[in-house]
Amino acid sequence: MRKLSREDFSEAATLQGPPATEYFAFGLSIRSDIPLPELSPSALVGRDADLSIRLAPCGRPLPPEGSGVVIDLDADGGHYLAWPGVAAFRFHGPARIDVEPYPGVSTALLAFPLLGPVFGLMLHMRGALVLHASAVAVGGRSAVFVGDKLAGKSTTAGAFVEAGHRLLTDDLLAIDLVDPLVPRILPAFAQLKLSEESSAAIDLGDAEALPLAHASLPKRQFRLGGGFSHRQMRPDHVFVLARGGETPMAEPLEGFDALGAIMRFSYIARFGGAVLAGEAEARHLHRCARLARTARVSRLHVPAGLDRLGETVAFVQALLGER
Fold first, then answer.
1. 249 near 302, Cβ under 8 Å?
2. pTM score, whole prediction
3. Of 100, 243, 253, 297, which sits with the fewest C-beta atoms within 10 Å of its C-beta?
4. Which of 230, 228, 229, 253 lies closest to 241 in space, CA to CA?
5. Which CATH architecture has domain 130-320?
6. Which InterPro entries match (predicted)?
7. In this predicted structure, what is the pLDDT of residue 183?
């Protein structure tokens, strides 16, 4: 990785935004030059942050607009990611991410790669198991929903919020495995992403429907006024969503079937073999196995039709022993 030149630092001065703001998400204090209203304000203002997000050049020319996503992973943690037309992101280990936006890009659009794949890679670097999943707190227990694209992870989580339960995360689930006996979900932020059809069928109370950051985005973000918890919880039950069936039904998965389901929905797998090469692959396998051993894993058959979501909520409540 080349060092920044005097010209780079001059260019960095043109990237200055409003004063950095302190946030809290995924169990981390975050100091960001980019406004991230999705995140909760931090009470640790003035202290050293766990993660610093800076507006700064990323050390190479921005890829031309219209080209493909760039993923350049570095063995020393200096990863470079770029979404042409949006921004480039340079990692300095897991504690600092530099962001170089394309001219005229809104901060709302920057949040999509930043709070998704970029944070997913950062959390993986910090030792978390990261899944493509949504999770809710159901009384004193938790339910995690994984599944293929369009399986209804966010929609199912939204139905639980409507029923009075609390969202833990949507789309990006980080599980802390520091405790050798009890894994913990690291709650994200109070926002849920729903299609127009799902949002019309689910009553999220005083949630704020946010404008689409870009016309091509298929789902709208909803900022919850309540219905969110920062409480770290054990991942009690992982449900692999399967649409279809007359009534909700849970089919237990054990052993290699449970492990395979968790590995299949690993968020970090989207970065390809480069991030899971050598010892990193063994560590990732160990993390997935830890979750498969400590949580119940089931395939959850969910009746089709948004008007039947309440049946799934009631079934899972009973399965978890919560009402």
1. no
2. 0.90
3. 243
4. 253
5. 3-Layer(aba) Sandwich (3.40)
6. P-loop_NTPase
7. 94
Question: What ranges do the domains of the chain cover?
Answer: 6-125, 130-320
In this structure, the chain runs to a length of: 323
Query: Buried b vs exposed e over 116-149: b needs ≥16 C-beta within 10 Å?
Result: ebbbbbbbbbbebbbbbbbbbbbeebbbbbbbee
Backbone CA torsion sign across 255, 256, 261, 262: positive
Of the candidates 249, 244, 6, 271, the one whose C-alpha atom is nearest the C-alpha of residue 113 is: 271
Contact 120, 171 (CB under 8 A): no
Count CB neighbours of 26 within 10 A.
26
Q: Are 147 and 135 in contact (CB under 8 A)?
A: no
Report the relative pairing of strands 87-91 and 96-101 from DSSP bridges.
antiparallel
Residues of the chain with confidence (pLDDT) below 50: 1-16
pLDDT digits (tens, 9 = 90+) for 260-273: 999 999 998 888 76
CA 255 to chain centre: 26
CA distance linking residue 265 with residue 277, whole number of Å: 18
